[in-house]
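#structure-requests
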Amino acid sequence: MHVVPVEKLEPGMVLAKPLFRGKMVILGEGTVLTRAWISRIADMGVERVFIDGPSVQAVSREEALAQLNLRFRNVEDRPQMKLIKEIAQAHIEGLYG
């Protein structure tokens, strides 16, 4: 399951969680989205929905690790920052399998 912005929704995607408007369920979990449903969701002002399936990463593993190295390049000599970087690196590697 992952969160998808409404502008990135495509027909055939499946809702992983129900879509509510107040306390009323508009679309139930497992609903297969059509162009019409996507248009209605956008018209309701919904910004993002939960979609079934594996998360799709916006950048490659290599790019994510390069960005991490760039962010920590000036503070790696500090033990606490090195630990934080190692934790973030393990998390990134976990996202990409």
